[in-house]
């Protein structure tokens, strides 16, 4: 597994994974293209044997106190091997490097594997958004991570933790207005 910053040339593969992982509320190609080149975020791909098996993104404006995990998706055949955790940790590290003190995300209430992964990394549930994911009418669980505690706990060993099961469908955004931000 190799993690690297996503490039515009990765868009077609990211879009395939996006549509497979989030069939009812996939982002559009122009939206993801904009995310890949935005100076306010970072998208990372998980590559093995020349194939992109996952991706994730964080919105982390340099110097802002808060960051938002936008999405994490893993190809179905590659799930359950710690790839989601590796992507999450890389995105958290990016937020920390850009000066964030807190990281937020939203996760579908019907995705207990992803919720457990985030909780195992220190995210706490701070709220709920009823019927947030459309057209599925699924609630969003809003979670927050205190970066000072996370970085102290993971200093020097960000790859050492045992992989947790992940279903590839990480934090997700609304299928409604589909604008970046709280998703």
Query: What's the number of helices?
Result: 5
Q: What helical percentage do the residues reach?
A: 25-40%
Radius of gyration: 15 Å
Q: What is the H/E order?
A: EHHEEEHEHEEH
> Which spans have pLDDT < 50 for at least 5 consecutive residues?
158-170, 172-183
* Gap between N and C termini: 27 Å
- Structural class, please? alpha+beta
Share of residues in strands: 25-35%
- Overall, the morphology is globular
State the strand order across the main sheet: 1-2-3-4-5-7-6
| Global mean pLDDT | 85
Number of strands: 7
Largest sheet: number of strands, sense, barrel closure:
7 strands, mixed
What can you see in these coordinates?
By secondary structure, the chain is α+β, with helices and mostly antiparallel strands. It contains 5 helices and 7 strands. The chain has a 7-stranded mixed β-sheet, sandwiched between helices. A hairpin with a 6-residue loop joins strand 3 and strand 4. Helix 1 (11-21) crosses helix 2. The chain starts with a strand and ends in a 29-residue tail after the last helix.
């Amino acid at each position: 597994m190799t993690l690297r910053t996503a490039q515009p040339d990765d868009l077609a593969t990211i879009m395939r994974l996006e549509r497979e992982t989030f069939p009812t509320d996939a982002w559009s190609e122009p939206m993801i293209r904009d995310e890949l080149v935005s100076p306010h975020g970072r998208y990372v791909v998980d590559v093995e044997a020349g194939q992109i098996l996952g991706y994730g993104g964080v919105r982390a404006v340099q110097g802002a106190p808060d960051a938002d995990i936008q999405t994490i998706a893993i190809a179905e055949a590659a799930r359950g091997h710690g790839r989601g955790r590796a992507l999450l940790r890389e995105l958290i590290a990016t937020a920390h490097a850009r000066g964030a003190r807190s990281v937020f995300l939203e996760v579908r209430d019907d995705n207990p594997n992803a919720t457990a992964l985030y909780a195992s990394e220190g995210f706490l549930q701070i709220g709920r958004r009823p019927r947030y994911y459309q057209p599925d009418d699924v609630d969003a669980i809003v979670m927050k991570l205190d970066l000072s505690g996370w970085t102290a706990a993971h200093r020097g060993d960000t790859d050492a933790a045992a992989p947790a099961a992940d279903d590839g469908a990480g934090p997700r955004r609304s299928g409604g207005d589909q604008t970046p931000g709280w998703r």
